[in-house]
Every structure is written in structure tokens, then in C-alpha cells.
Amino acid sequence: MNKKFALTIHGGAGTLLRENISPEQEKNIHAALRAALDAGSNVLSSCGSAMDAVVASVTVLEDSELFNAGRGAVFTNEATHELDASIMCGKTNGAGAVCSVKHIQNPIQLSRMVMERSEHVLLNGEGAEEFARLQGVSFVSNSFFSTDFRRQQLEEARLAGKVQLDHADKEKKFGTVGAVALDINGNLAAGTSTGGMTNKRFGRVGDSPLIGCGTFADNHTCAVSCTGWGEFFIKNVVAYDVAARMRYGKMSLRDACHELVMKKLAEQGADGGLIAIDKDGQVEMVFNSPGMYRGSVVMGEEPFTAIF
Amino acid sequence: MNKKFALTIHGGAGTLLRENISPEQEKNIHAALRAALDAGSNVLSSCGSAMDAVVASVTVLEDSELFNAGRGAVFTNEATHELDASIMCGKTNGAGAVCSVKHIQNPIQLSRMVMERSEHVLLNGEGAEEFARLQGVSFVSNSFFSTDFRRQQLEEARLAGKVQLDHADKEKKFGTVGAVALDINGNLAAGTSTGGMTNKRFGRVGDSPLIGCGTFADNHTCAVSCTGWGEFFIKNVVAYDVAARMRYGKMSLRDACHELVMKKLAEQGADGGLIAIDKDGQVEMVFNSPGMYRGSVVMGEEPFTAIF
């Protein structure tokens, strides 16, 4: 046992500017991030696993209407919701993911079931839901995920004729949630969940359900969850690239994250960020956009939450 | 211009044993591999691009009934065909992919359209087909892909109650096709296409449509196309791992491929292989299974094809 646990979460990145967020919204976001941290750190402080902590934190973020994952997810072009998620265990390198599910309240929990109860990693759409049904998962109607705020964003995106991220017109916001944890047994885990892009069409899938792109975990190096412009995060295989820089390039977690996010991705105009923890409990929350909803807690220290 | 071109293709890996393949089948397989090589090398020898060569070669392999991609694809549990493909350009790092399409004769060509004509990388199912329709792609009926041989495999898999790869009972065969090319301008490209697993359920997606896992290309390092037990290839982010070992670990293409396929993957029981070309035109075709349908041609040399 390394006797130290660490947890970090994100709720998306983008053009988060203080002048666009009211004091009340800011307060609500901090409270939601804190609730997600508490859910995960309660697991870790009771000697629970990194995997359990990641699921606990991401579930809270999915259930919050404030973030683009689970309830509060953005609308597709067809005014429906399609959700993606993935999870990976650093100890076993086991992984599970679902994409384009429409009736699963907590896609992160279904991802874990795919990892633990199937021979597969990625299950898609109705097939993923058939698997969920056989696992006894209860279904919600697609409108369960709807909120007035997101419907208004869809109307604005339709009027503008744009496939948008989850942003108002002047903003660029990548709504995704994620958590990364190290438990006292030295095991790492990472999970990511998203509602995708407002007004999205063509069954677009971003990086969030893709192992290596949106999510990666390996006890030898680190665990990572990403949020940002999904297409760039896919092409750069971002989550695994952090681990590869550490493993093959002998970089520290900090250098690996900064080189990747602040240089390589920034030079491409690939807005976004990531959270990561290495096997020694070092925590990184790095973003090249004006803000990223984020938080962290390390054993024995006060929890931290921030937006800008 | 480096004035040298190179091309390599695969048609799947697995328990390919001489005693299970008739001389006539063997002859047909060599002829099909040769036809695919010719299609690609005709492009390259006329100063065409690596991207055009990859599409030309994979199209021939998709159109051949002998391989599990395009026509001749395996059946899902519902006795339908669901096809996946991906492509990546080493010069631009542009990428395109489709998963679970049912009416597209050549998914590799649709993947290229996603890369060149959309802002996205991965399009899924009906959405991908909606995109195809807007691009003027003609559709085929799902039964276009059916062959008696694959239907018989489905019946056997159903009787055995197994989700199988594209194999007879004693075999383990990973039917996927792919091509990797270097053109005379020094540009690399890679593409992969598959029909997935016989009797597959739950919308299972393997590594073939996933950038970084089944396909990767970057002019700084190499281009890679994989075939094998998809779940392991996802968790090991195989295609990108070859590039990362070269870039960060300063390994040669040969060492990177061999360390990964013959050690890391073999130790996990992750059957399969990959084809790769580095920026200098070095060609690798590496597999830890008894056989891999494969071929290569380097400018000025005789084409090579092999099974075992």
C-alpha cells in the first residue's frame, strides 16, 4: 500500500469566462464539483478502489444537470440525446465503453458492466442497450435527459445552422465529465462520460468513449480523462499519448501533460484539457482553453475546485 | 521526393494452417492479394498518393469474397452484416472512420469521405449512412455482402452458442483487411476495413474503426494497420503504440513492431498481427498467430504474397 489516495475530476473545458457566469451559477458549479469529489473520496478514504471512486464521482456529475453528460446532456439534431462513456482499470488494463446509448441513466456504470461482464470493450447503440437489459439495468425515457437550457441551445444552434459543441454562440465549450483516481493499493482508474455536441448529426462519435483517446489507465504510468475538441483528441490519441511519453520518453506526468496540451494540441488549435494522476499520486489538471470545470482531492488535504 | 514507394496489405490473421487450406483456395488467396497489391502499386508507380493507393488496395480486398470485409463479410447474430473501417493520412494526420454501416459497398471509401468532407472523424451506423447519402454514395442491400460460406459459419457459431471470430470451430481467424503505403513524396497512409465477428451481438465494435487502435499514420514515424483480437488491440492502443515507441523510445520500426506483437501482445494471448511502413520505406508484416494473409511490394522489386 502506498497509503496515499488521490482523485481529480472535470466537468468540461472551453471558453468559460467569469463575465458569462453569474455568481449563483458559479456557486452551483463549485457545489456540484465538490459533491462529485466527496462521492469519490468517500470511497477512497474507506479503502475503496480507484474504479469504485471513478464510478461514484462520474455518476454524480452525470446526474447533475449542470454538465453535458447523463441528465443535462445536449440535444442532437433530431432533438434526442445520445450518450457515450468509457472506463479503464489501470491494474488489469481492462476497459469498457458504450456509445450512442439513449436510455441509460448512468453510461459510466454501463461501461463498467461492459468491462466486467462481457468479453468486449466497446458496445454500440441498441446493441449496448440490449446488453444493459440482460444485465438488469433499468431504462429511462430519452426525455429524462432533457433540460430547458439544453433545448434552448439546440434552437440557437439550429437557427445558426451549426453543429455546435455545448456552447452559446460566443462560447466554445466542451461538455464532458470525467474522473481519475489512485487508491491506497496503488491502483489507478479513469472514466469519461459525455452527451456529445449540440445539434450533432450523422452519428458523430467523439473521443469520450474511445479507449486511448478520451480515457486511459495503466498502473505503470498514469490514468487520464480528457475533455475537448473530440476530433483532435482522437487524431492525437491524447489519453494514451500521456502514458507513452512517460513510458517510452521517460517524462514526468507534469511534463507529458504540458508538452501535449499546451504545445502539441494548442498549436493545432485543439482546445481542451485533461486530468491525470500518476502512480505516485501526482495530480495534473491541464487545459489550453480559458477554463475547465475541475477539482481534486489528495489524502490529508482540503478538496480543491475551480473553473477559470 | 524520396523516389521510393512501398505498399503492404493484409487480409486477416489467425489459425491459418496449411492442412486446412486446399491448394485451390491457396491459389485464389494469393491471386486476390496480388490483385490488391497491383491496384495500389499502380497508383504509387504513377506518382499517385499513399492515400489513393491505400483506398485502391483495400477496395479490392473489400470486393473479394475471400476476406471478412465488404462482400464476404461475416454475419452478426441477427444474420445481418455490420461493417467498420478507418483511414488516416500521415501528412495531415487527418482521419476518417465509420462503424456499423450496413449498406455501403466500400466502407474504406466512405471513411475517406468522412475525413475529407466532414468535420468529424468517426460516424456511426445510420448517421454515417445519412452522411453517405448526402455525398451521393450509392447503397447496396445488406444481402449484397452475404455469401454461402459465411452463412454456414453463422449456423455453426449459433449451434456452438458462441460469439465467434470468422473461424471454423477449430480455428481462430481474425478477418480484417488493411493496407499501408508510402508514396514517392514521402507521405504515409493507412487503412483498415472489417466485417467484425461472426454471430456478434450487442453492437460490438472492434479495433478496426478506431484511430490509434486499428489504424494510425504519421509522416514523422510510420503508418500501421492491425488485424487481431480487437479487444486486446483496443486496450493496448496498438497502432499508435508502434508510432509512440519509435517517436519517444527511439526504436526502429522493426523493433517497435516485434516488441509489441511478439512480446507484449503475445504474453497477453492477444492473437493477431499488423503491417507497417516507416517514413524511410521499411516494411514490416508481423504476427504472433500461425498465419496472416499478407503481401508487399517495394518499388523496383517483385511483389510478395504469403499466408503462413
Overall residue-averaged pLDDT value of chain A: 93
H and E order of chain A:
EHHEEHEHHEEEEEEHHHEEEE
Tell how many strands the DSSP assignment of chain A holds: 14
Residues in helices of chain A, as a percent range: 25-40%
Rg estimate of chain A, integer Å: 17 Å
Q: What kind of assembly state do the chains in view correspond to?
A: homodimer
Shape of chain A: globular
Count of alpha/pi helices of chain A? 8
Q: What's the story with the biggest beta sheet of chain A?
A: 9 strands, mixed
Task: State the separation between the terminal residues of chain A, measured CA to CA.
Answer: 35 Å
The CATH C-level name of chain A is Alpha Beta
Can you name the CATH architecture of chain A?
A: 4-Layer Sandwich
CATH superfamily of chain A: (Glycosyl)asparaginase
User: Can you tell me the CATH topology of chain A?
Assistant: Glutamine Phosphoribosylpyrophosphate, subunit 1, domain 1
Percentage beta strand of chain A: 25-35%
Which terms would index this structure?
4-stranded antiparallel beta sheet; homodimer; alpha+beta; Glutamine Phosphoribosylpyrophosphate, subunit 1, domain 1; 308 residues; 9-stranded mixed beta sheet
Descriptive notes:
The structure is a homodimer of 308-residue chains. The first copy, chain A, starts with 5 loop residues before the first strand and ends with a strand. Chain A has a single domain (6-306), classed as Glutamine Phosphoribosylpyrophosphate, subunit 1, domain 1 (4-Layer Sandwich), CATH 3.60.20. The relative contact order of chain A is 0.20. In chain A, the strands form two sheets. In chain A, strands 1, 2, 3, 4, 5, 6, 7, 13 and 14 form a nine-stranded mixed beta sheet that branches. A four-stranded antiparallel beta sheet of chain A has the order 9-10-11-12. With 308 residues, the first copy, chain A, is an alpha+beta fold. Chain A has helices spanning 23-45, 50-63, 107-117, 125-134, 148-160, 230-235, 238-247, 253-268, and strands at residues 6-14, 83-89, 95-101, 122-124, 173-174, 176-182, 188-194, 204-205, 215-217, 222-228, 272-278, 283-287, 291-298, 304-306. Chain A contains eight helices and 14 strands. Residues 165-170 of chain A have low confidence and may be disordered. Helices cover 33% and strands 25% of the residues of chain A. The A-B interface holds A 88, 93-95, 99-100, 118-128, 130-131, 163, 201-206, 210-213, 216, 230-231, 234-237, 240-241, 244-245, 247-249, 251 and B 88, 93-95, 99-100, 118-128, 130-131, 163, 201-206, 210-213, 216, 230-231, 234-237, 240-241, 244-245, 247-249, 251.
